[in-house]
Amino acid sequence: MGRGKIAIKKIENPTSRQVTYSKRRLGIMKKAKELTVLCDAQVSLIMFSSSGKLADYCSPSTEIKDVFERYQQVTGIDIWDAQYQRMQDTLKNLKEINHNLQKEIRQRKGENLEGLEIKELRGLEQKLEESIKIVRQRKYHVIATQTDTYKKKLRSTREIYTTLLHELEVEDENQRRSIVAEDLIGVYDSAILMANQQRTVSQICRM
After folding, report:
1. 98 and 46 share one domain
2. Residue-wise pLDDT tens digits, 164-199
3. Might you report a single GO cellular component term (predicted)?
4. Which domain holds residue 109?
5. Which of 114, 139, 163 is the last residue of a domain?
6. Per-residue three-class SS string for the chain
7. Residue 26 lies in a domain
8. Quick check: is 24 in a domain?
9. Which comes out higher in pLDDT, residue 53 or 112?
10. Spatial separation of the C-alpha atoms in residues 205 and 37, rounded to whole Å
């Protein structure tokens, strides 16, 4: 029993459509390679999936550009004309945007104001006020940040000073205790020496 005939129409299910494209893409690429080998033909194949993914094939020792140029010569159709026109339109649009930006910059600097109507001058004034407001907010934010940083550094410096002062006081106290202990030891040694001397004198007197 042969396979059922598939109706040639768009597959509505996206998953099935992608699977079908993947399978048939491999098949048509295989056929293009076979045609190149069997018939010594120059074949150039370009495909885009519904998601925009590119798949292409070009017969060996042949550049796609050469195939396009031969196609243009045979058909008389300039396939690059539309692309060139789009590039020209994009360039023109970018130049216009650049011109308007340059003009707006000069006007914000107080230049080229001649010929502007009241409405345009008011609009320019409003833009300047909004810009000044943004700059002022940024300035206040920077000042607040710097102030907080200074306070943190000052607090850290005070803590370090307090710690060093405490360590110095502890060291001084230890030194004083060491001196008192040395003095007591000296007094104790002197007392022992005097006692020994008195004992020796007493013994001599008894003799």
Report:
1. no
2. 777 777 777 767 666 656 666 665 566 666 666 666
3. nucleus
4. 80-114
5. 114
6. CCCCCCCCCCCCCHHHHHHHHHHHHHHHHHHHHHHHHHHCCCCEEEEECCCCCEEEEECCCCCHHHHHHHHHHHHCCCCCHHHHHHHHHHHHHHHHHHHHHHHHHHHHCCCCCCCCCHHHHHHHHHHHHHHHHHHHHHHHHHHHHHHHHHHHHHHHHHHHHHHHHHHHHHHHHHHHHHHHHHHHHHHHHHHHHHHHHHHHHHHHHHC
7. yes
8. yes
9. 53
10. 141
Q: Is residue 42 a contact partner of residue 62, using CB atoms and an 8 Å limit?
A: yes
CATH number at residue 72: 3.40.1810.10
Tokens standing for residue 143: 């000042």
Say how far apart CA 35 and CA 65 lie, in whole Å: 20
70 shares its domain with 31: yes
Residue 8 falls inside a structural domain: no
Evaluate whether residue 97 is within a structural domain: yes
Q: How crowded is residue 59: how many other Cβ atoms within 10 Å of its Cβ? A: 19
Q: Which residues contact 121 (CB under 8 A, 6 or more apart)?
A: 113
Lowest-confidence pick of 38-42, 48-52, 65-69, 78-82: 78-82
Number of residues that make up the chain: 207
CA-derived radius of gyration, the chain:
49
